[in-house]
Amino acid sequence: MAHRHLTDDEIQSFLDGNLSQADIVGHLQTCEYCQYQLKQYQQLYIELAHDKGFNLSTDFARRVISRLQTEPSRSLMQRLWDVSIWVVGLLAGVVTSFYFIDLKLVSKEISEALSSLGTLNSAMLSVFKTFDKSLNLNIPQLAIAGFVLMLILAIDHFILHRIRNLRSSFS
């Protein structure tokens, strides 16, 4: 033990009476650093023995919990509103994606792939041709409508959020 200093755990175990005293005492007689550490821990033990601690008041927990802001429970209409926001956002994303994708090229590629399969190709080809002709949507108008709806939704959300904050500050 003369080659290294005692660890904090070893000094504390020595003070608690859990270590062999012969090895520790032999080291402490020659090592000034460990003597200093031992004196520091002895002083700490004395101070802790004299510490009376403190008691919290009986209503401490209630007072702390009452100061915490709780999130108000959300009504069914608010939850449905949130779901509708997600649906509108998803639809706006799909519409925007269709705006940037050439559907005629996609349907042509699918038709060629199906025709190369050799089975049910004529029926599937006619379905895709019908699908391609029936997609006479005005994609830019749909994208603009989706964007306007999202903008209205964001403005509405911020206004309602401010109203809730004002109500909670007055209550």
What does this structure look like?
Helix content is 77%, strand content 0%. It has 2 domains: 8-50, no CATH class; 76-170, no CATH class. The protein has 8 helices and no strands. It is an all-alpha fold and 171 residues long. The longest helix is centred in the last third of the chain and has 32 residues, at 139-170. The protein starts with 7 loop residues before the first helix and ends with a helix.
Q: Order of helices and strands, N to C? A: HHHHHHHH
Structural domain count: 2
Please give the alpha-carbon distance between the first and last residues: 68 Å
**Helical amount:** over 70%
Shape: elongated
Number of helices: 8
Stretches where pLDDT is under 50 for at least 5 consecutive residues are none
Strand content: under 5%
Look at the helices and sheets and give the structural class: mainly alpha
Largest sheet: none
Number of beta strands: 0
**Average pLDDT, all residues:** 76
Radius of gyration: 38 Å
Helices and strands in order:
Elements: H1 8-16, H2 21-30, H3 32-50, H4 60-67, H5 76-100, H6 103-117, H7 121-134, H8 139-170
Helix pairs in contact: 1-3, 5-8, 6-7
Task: Describe this structure in a few short sentences.
The chain has 171 residues and is mainly alpha-helical.
